[in-house]
Amino acid sequence: MEHMHGRSFLKLLDFSPAEIAGLLDLAADLKAKKKAGVPHRLYEGKNIALIFEKTSTRTRCAFEVAAADLGMHAVYLDPKSSQMGKKESIADTARVLGRMFDGIEYRGYGQEIVETLAEFAGVPVWNGLTNEFHPTQILADFLTIREHFGSLKGRKLVYLGDARYNMGNSLMVGCAKMGLEFTACAPAAYFPDPALVNTCRLIADYTGASLRFETDPVSAVKGADVLYTDVWVSMGEPEEVWEERIRDLSPYRVTKALMDEAGSQCRFLHCLPSFHDLDTEIGNEIFEKYGIPCMEVTDEVFNGPQSIVFDEAENRMHTIKAVMAATLRP
Asked: Which residues are CB-contacts of 284 (< 8 A; sequence separation ≥ 6)?
């Protein structure tokens, strides 16, 4: 994948279906090497910066372990460790870091921030999550689906919940690119941006994908291969929106009954973290305030035999490793 050296990985819209498939193939190869104990220190001596304006478990660990496996050194910049956007402009920060590092990861807020970093850094920039897109997560999701079903094209994926932000957007784009049947199931006010929907429809016309938007969960999940959901309130959103989201999105909770409507072939995915029980501070706070023991998915589904969320979580590391391996300059 030499043609990708030096490119940034900001959103899946920037990549062709063949390039996305190539990244998945590379991830599968690197995963096999790691499982077999075969060293793959392809970038010995390289250094990367990890900018986290939003904290994370999976994304940070995936980048750091993947970097180490590739022979690189990673420097983590937490929300208090950088002056980016405060005392120094994003463009100036990019120019500085680009002189010191061979690649830069950004996890934070607006997509325009990671796009500006990529414009001025002079080295590959990778999107670890923005408000609008989460492309490394989709690669992990698709590798997991491919491992369990053997292929992507024609598979039916239903996303339930708030489809207006990074996960709904990115799954829709990814499904359009790779020829899946994508359904967003939510109240109509929670559907993705119409302009992005139109863009994805044009892509789907070329790839054979399909896009549907449903408000009835039972109708939406019939025959689905994958039910996918995410937390109802994202990082950075005010606490006041919990009551509204619980009211509007509770009918879209993934339950055993809904999995049964989909069929025994269906698998459950979630990008994590998940509020499926009362073993978190937030879960307990919500239970005390609203009396519900779970939110977007029941514990029965999350820990049930159709759940492949931990295969999915592991694949964050393998797919992120593939992105870095494909885009870093030798």
From this structure: 278
Max alpha carbon distance in the chain (Å)?
55
Q: What is the DSSP secondary-structure string of 199-228?
A: HHHHHHHHHT-EEEEES-HHHHHTT-SEEE
Q: What are the CA-CA distances from residue 224 to residues 89, 135, 168, 182, 251 (Å)?
A: 46, 22, 17, 10, 18
Q: Model-level pTM?
A: 0.97
Question: Count of H helices and E strands in the chain?
Answer: 13, 9
Alpha-carbon distance of 318 to 140, in angstroms, equals 8
Average pLDDT value for residue range 44-62: 95
Confidence of residue 83 (pLDDT cuts 50, 70, 90): low
Q: Are 323 and 136 in contact (CB under 8 A)?
A: yes
User: Catalytic residue numbers?
Assistant: 107, 134, 137, 230, 271, 316
Q: How many CB atoms lie within 10 A of CB 195?
A: 8
Q: Residue 107: which H helix or E strand, with range?
A: strand 103-107
What is the C-alpha separation between 138 and 293, in angstroms, rounded?
A: 28
Question: Tell me, what's the pLDDT at 80?
Answer: 74
- Asked whether 49 and 104 are in contact (CB, 8 A), the reply is yes
Q: What is the mean pLDDT of the chain?
A: 96
| Nearest alpha carbon to residue 183 among 173, 172, 167 | 172
